[in-house]
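Discussion board: Methods & Data

I've been asked by a reviewer to show the raw model output for two of the constructs in my manuscript, not just the figures. I'm not sure how much to include, so I'm pasting the format here to get opinions. Each protein appears as its amino acid sequence followed by a line of discrete structure tokens. Is this the kind of thing reviewers expect to see in a supplement, or should I convert it first? Here is construct A:
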Amino acid sequence: MSPNDVAVLIQNSVKMTLLISGPILGVGMAVGLVIALFQAITQIQEMTLTFVPKIFAVFITILLLASWMIIVMVDYTHNLIISIPELVRGG
């Protein structure tokens, strides 16, 4: 396995991580921004007001996207396992 192969594997794993976590983090960030604007407008500074809606939004997002995330992860893992003999032989 060459250093180039290792770099490609690391690059693909980072892309996969961002692809899987991106929608969840995006929803959490969007809900946090809306809550922050609401708090700034109403001057309500309750700490639980920031966490509870974000937890529910992230949970709902995970429920809605779980099947897609599993399919993407299984496809990536399948392709990675299939490529092991080629990587071990050196390409």
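Construct B, same format:
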Amino acid sequence: MVITRGNTAVAYQQTQGQEAAVERQVRYQRRLRLSPMAVYGLVLALAVLIALLYLSQYALLAHLNLQINSMKGRIETLERENRDLERQAAHLASLERIERVAREELGMLPCQQVRYLAVADSPSPANTPESHTQELKGDETVPRLAGWLRLKTAQARDSAQ
């Protein structure tokens, strides 16, 4: 094998095993050697890739912020509409409005006298039907009802004649 250094050539003899190892080492060094332009190209490509990833993430973030703002606006609109509907429901359910509609549109009149009827939960000896009929006989309700009926029948006869 001949190795040239400067203007001097040195020749020495190597064994076959050593020659094969030297050839492999030379091939390996040739294979891994990259020109400076190739290194700059790889660095530039890597920088562009990182910049594109950053910009895509920034664009995605801006898009999501836009969606969040539009959803907040929609939520505010729906809450305002919900408050208006609750106010309208409260107005429609107010007793004054119901009374006015009953009087004006349905022609109803307010009750003049309220009467309550007591109902026992379970029958007791004092609340049996027999005790009620005995109370009615002794009460003056029956004679008053009979007098009222006589008066009405007499008025009907007079008007018929």
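Answer (T.O., handling editor elsewhere):
This is acceptable in a supplement if you add a one-line summary per construct. For B, something like: The radius of gyration is 55 Å.
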